[in-house]
Every structure is written in structure tokens, then in C-alpha cells.
Amino acid sequence: MPSSRTATKTPSPGRRPLDPRTCRALLASQREGRLGYTSGRGHRAVPVHYKTEDGYIFLRTADYNEIAQYAPGAKVSFDLTHRADEAHEGWEIHVVGVAEPLEEEPEVDDEEPEAWPAGVRALALRIPVTEITGVEIAAH
Questions:
Q1: Distance of CA 93 to the CA centre of its chain
Q2: Domain count within the chain
Q3: What are phi and psi for residue 74, nearest 5 degrees?
Q4: Considering the domain boundaries, does residue 83 fall inside one?
């Protein structure tokens, strides 16, 4: 499993740092996040569906997509934000790693398989969770 490094920052009021183990558990509990990468037109952060297993984030995109052109082999970020509706409480997770293209999609256990249109070629990517940080957000 890839190693984890956490950044040391002084959190702002109402924000408490989360340990890497908690961050990994929250990452594994969700299925949609934002992939950040640099394209020919600047920084992008786009929503993607993903799965996690063995310290990696797995996702796929159409092979003609901008992600397929710029993310493979590049340092990318992956972000999750969860907010409770009324309470303004929640958490944020930030992951950094290098996106690795895969020859074929891995078998990942999941109760809800993602639908994929017939005939659309996909590029599968794997992002090792080499850096992970997170904060819990409390209501003021």
C-alpha cells in the first residue's frame, strides 16, 4: 500500500485536522469526487465517479476526454467535500498522487456497478494515495 504523508497546518476555527486513517475511511465511503489536473487551458477540477481499493483510487473516463489526454503520468489531486445540509458541518479530504493509466480495468468489489454506455472506449486510471489530508468542519 502506498505511504501517506500529511501536511502540518494550523486549522482555522471550526476546522479540525483528520488523521490519515480516518481520511482513507471517508474516501472509501464515497463514490464521487473531483479530479484536479492541469490541461493545456489551465487547471481543471471535474467531478468523477471512483472506487478505492488497496490504497488506490480507480476511475475511468472516455478515451477521448480531456482527462485522458492530460492526467496519465501527471501529478493530480482528488478532492471530496461532504456537508450536512442544515448544520453546516462536514469534512473535506484532499489526495495527491500521480495518475497511472491501466491496460485493463481492475476487478473492484462494489455493490453498485457503474453504468457505462455501450461502444464508448474507456481509459482506466489508478491514483496511488501518496498524500492525504483532511479536516472536519464544525458549525460555529
A1: 8
A2: 1
A3: -105, 155
A4: yes
Within a domain: residue 81?
Answer: yes
Q: How far apart are CA 4 and CA 15, in angstroms?
A: 21
Sign of CA dihedral 129, 56, 137, 85: positive
The model's pTM is: 0.81
Q: What is the CATH number of the domain that holds 33?
A: 2.30.110.10
Q: Give a yes or no: residue 7 inside a domain.
A: no
DSSP 5: B
Per the listing, cell 494515495 goes with 129
Q: Per the domain annotation, does 40 fall within a domain?
A: yes
Among the listed residues 79, 62, 92, the one whose alpha carbon sits nearest the alpha carbon of residue 127: 79
Which cell goes with 110?
462494489
| pLDDT at residue 3, rounded to an integer | 47
Rounded CA-CA distance 129/77 in Å is 10
Under-50 pLDDT residues of the chain: 1-4, 6-8, 113
What residue numbers bound the domain in which 88 lies? Answer: 16-102+120-137
